[in-house]
C-alpha cells in the first residue's frame, strides 16, 4: 500500500499545504526533474511533462 493511500484527504491536504508553505514543494519537484534529466530516474514522458508544468506553476507566486 502506498503512503498516499494510507492518508486521509485532510491529511493529504495538510501535507501539501505544509510543503508549499515551507517552500519544500518546489525543491522536491526540482530535485525530481533533475534526477530524471540526469538519467537517475526513469519515468514516462507524460509524468515528466506534468512535473515540468507543476514546477512552472509553483515558481509563479
From TrEMBL:
Record Pfam families: AbbA_antirepres
Gene3D superfamilies, per the entry: 1.10.287.3030
Name recorded for this polypeptide: Antirepressor AbbA
Species: Metabacillus endolithicus
Gene that this sequence comes from: abbA
Amino acid at each position: 500500500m502506498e503512503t498516499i493511500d494510507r492518508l486521509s484527504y485532510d491529511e493529504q491536504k495538510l501535507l501539501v499545504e505544509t510543503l508549499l508553505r515551507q517552500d519544500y514543494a518546489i525543491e522536491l519537484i526540482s530535485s525530481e526533474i533533475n534526477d530524471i534529466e540526469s538519467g537517475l530516474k526513469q519515468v514516462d514522458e507524460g509524468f515528466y511533462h506534468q512535473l515540468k508544468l507543476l514546477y512552472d506553476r509553483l515558481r509563479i507566486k
